[in-house]
Amino acid sequence: MLRNICRYQRQFGQVIWPFSFPQGHHGPNLSTQLQKAKYSSALTERKKFYENVSISQGEGGVFEINLDKRKLKTPGGKLFTVPNEALAIAVATEWDVQKDTLKFYTMHLTTLCNTALDNPTQRTEEQIISAALKFLDTDTICYRVEEPPGLVELQRNEWDPVMNWIEQRYNVVIGSSSNIMGPQIPEETKDTFRQHLNSYNFWALTGLEYVITQLKSLVLSFGLIDRHLSVEQAVLLSRLEEEFQIQHWGNVESAHDYDMYELRARTAAGAMFVYLSSESTAVKRKILQD
């Protein structure tokens, strides 16, 4: 990735005239209801309409994405701007690697930026935090089976170390249960996690909630963002029961592999978005040139 960043830093920079993207948007005063409809019916593919991608710094220190002589805009009609150079370069890379057809469903960073900029559901940081904390009540690794014995042992061996880590890391109690109602999470634990989530800005929270949604686990997501787990480990742990069944009963290989790679891609993009959205300084040219 560093090689790509270096290459983009050399090529990007010129300021180009604005344009409206996607075509047919209804302007920045679009109602919330229409914004929701636009997001839910967004095109998944489109013929590529540009040749060159560049970034430029706009007013207030934000960075913009330029497609030939046109500035990128959000589905809601806002100028597409990101808070720092590192995130701008990462988004520009998504646009640059597209071939003849734009596959928007592969452009996860762009989608997350659009969500943060347009905020189509008009949520506050507190609402995002509350939504993220709800996953704790149904967290993937809090629910344990009672049979078969092989899966019981697998869950204990693979999930317990992660549970022990997060309880020690944040000085909380979570626990696990085989009851359909799940474990009773103490309010003190939720308050600790709420305080931790409050340390993230709106953009980072958008990315973190995306990761939690992919993994269906706040515990695994914290493990990933805190660099205790790799993307591959977090995804595998989130699919432990499915992987166990596949080992015993087999699977449609191509479908399984596609689902696994897609989940890894979305999870990795979400984690990168959190990291880059938390970056407060621009990428240093000297570092890029080293």
UniProtKB/TrEMBL annotation:
Q: Where in the cell is it found?
A: Mitochondrion inner membrane
Q: What is its main location?
A: mitochondrion
Q: What does this protein do?
A: Plays a role in the assembly of the F1 component of the mitochondrial ATP synthase (ATPase).
Q: Could you list this entry's UniProt keywords, alphabetically sorted.
A: Chaperone, Membrane, Mitochondrion, Mitochondrion inner membrane, Transit peptide
Q: Which domain of life is it from?
A: Eukaryota
Specify the taxonomic lineage.
Eukaryota, Metazoa, Chordata, Craniata, Vertebrata
Q: In what way does this protein cross or attach to the membrane?
A: Peripheral membrane protein
Gene Ontology terms: cellular component:
mitochondrial inner membrane
> What is the recorded name of this protein?
ATP synthase mitochondrial F1 complex assembly factor 2
Q: Which Pfam families match?
A: ATP12
Keyword ATP-binding attached = no
Subunit details for this protein?
A: Interacts with ATP5F1B; involved in the assembly of the F1 component of the mitochondrial ATP synthase (ATPase). Interacts with FMC1.
Family under the similarity heading: Belongs to the ATP12 family.
